[in-house]
Amino acid sequence: MSADFQMKFRHNNDNLHVKMLGVFDGNSAHELLNLFQHEYRGAGRVFVDTVGLREVLPFGTQVFQARLCQTPVPASQLFFKGEKGFSIAPEGSKVLLVPDRKKKNGCCGSCAHCTCHGQHGQEH
């Protein structure tokens, strides 16, 4: 992996979750495609978090979009999280925009296991 790019991944049920950090270029695109080749189990969705990317270079997008068909991941099962996903997402995939749920007081009160229900000064 290049010094300017890192990936972390995990499996959750049949879904693959990938978090990218750094700069998405041609080498990064190859690394992501290789990860799909080795870690996608043939079912479920693939969620690619782009929030940690500092930059998306056009060549990285071109490589990724041109070579996705060589992996077992169908575009329809590919979900990019974050604004930078619009730069990378191939036709048939989706981009999810996840609003920042934290408010200045540390909690919005609507997370799945909230105990403070938005009360000021409490964290969880």
Task: Give an overview of the whole structure.
Helix content is 23%, strand content 29%. It has 124 residues and is an alpha/beta fold. The protein has a single domain, classed as STAS domain (Transcription Regulator spoIIAA, 2-Layer Sandwich). Strand 2 (15-24), helix 1 and strand 3 form a beta-alpha-beta unit. The longest helix has 14 residues, at 26-39. The chain is globular and about 45 Å long. Residues 119-124 have low confidence and may be disordered. This is Peptidylprolyl isomerase.
Per CATH, which architecture?
Answer: 2-Layer Sandwich
Order of helices and strands: EEHEHEHE
| Strand residues, percent | 25-35%
Shape: globular
Q: Using DSSP, what is the number of strands?
A: 5
Q: What is the chains' assembly state? A: single chain
Total domains, how many?
A: 1
Q: Given the structure, what is the number of helices? A: 3
**CATH topology, anyone?**
Transcription Regulator spoIIAA
Based on secondary structure, the structural category is alpha/beta
Tell me, rounded to a whole number, the average pLDDT.
87
Please report the distance between the alpha carbons of the first and last residues: 35 Å
Instruction: Enumerate the spans where pLDDT stays under 50 for 5 or more consecutive residues.
Output: 119-124
| Rg estimate, integer Å | 16 Å
**What is the makeup of the main sheet?**
5 strands, mixed
CATH superfamily: STAS domain
Strand line-up across the major sheet: 1-2-3-4-5
Keywords: Isomerase
Protein name: Peptidylprolyl isomerase
Organism: Candidatus Bilophila faecipullorum
GO molecular function, one term: isomerase activity
